[in-house]
Amino acid sequence: MFELFRAGGPLMWIILLCSLVALAIIFERLIALRKRQVAPSTLRGQIIDLANSGKITRERVQKVREHSPLGQVLAAGLENVHHGEQAMRESLEESGKVVVHRLGRYLNTLGTIASITPLIGLLGTVIGMIKVFTAITANGVGDPTVLSGGISEALITTAAGLSVGIPCLMFYRHFRGKIVELTVSLEEEALAFLESQKEG
To answer: How far apart are CA 69 and CA 52, in angstroms?
Structure first.
């Protein structure tokens, strides 16, 4: 395996580094974007009970804020319960924008890796073919072993670049879709909380 890696030339190290960064991002986002971690189903009821009890303290609001991304959104509404519906709505919207932005953390990096690794593989192909034509110029086409080094480098780097880029693109698209779903869930929870306070 290492011989195959080494045959791909120096660009393989860049592709390897990209793959390690991508793996770290994928595992981190798989954990961070679980629905029960972002928007726990029982939290809204607890917040409504707290708001209706009138026992809202700075410590309790801070505890809610640290609970989860949904907690961060609802804590902003809790802080403005006594300032009217408009103030609550604005604070929920502002907090929601910040939370949704954080949900997309590292995805630009993952998307960049998905885009550049096939291009790095293509660059390896070009470098490999340059070596092939240089060898042909120097030695002619009589000895295939002279050409094999450049050809193998071209093929290996292309395959490596695609092998990293394709899964990265798949996960990038998956996470983008997941964030859209979670954003809808956060909006629904925030609106339900707002409606409960209007009724109250």
So the answer is: 22
| Surface-to-core class of residue 39, CB atoms within 10 Å of its CB (0-12 exposed, 13-18 middle, 19+ buried) | buried
Q: Do residues 61 and 78 make contact, with C-beta atoms less than 8 angstroms apart?
A: yes
What region does 144 belong to: left with phi over 0, alpha with psi -120 to 50, or beta?
alpha
**Distance separating alpha carbons of residues 74 and 67, to the nearest angstrom:** 10
- Would you say residue 58 has pLDDT above 90? no
Per the CB < 8 A criterion, the answer to whether 109 and 121 are in contact is: no
Residue 29 and residue 106 in contact, taking contact as beta carbons nearer than 8 Å: yes
User: Would you call 57 exposed, middle or buried from its count of C-beta atoms within 10 A (0-12, 13-18, 19+)?
Assistant: exposed
92-127 pLDDT, tens per residue? 899 999 999 999 999 999 999 999 999 999 998 888
Residue 172, pLDDT > 90, answer: yes
Helix crossing, 144-199 with 43-53: angle to 10°?
30
Nearest to 66 by CA among 41, 43, 87, 97: 43
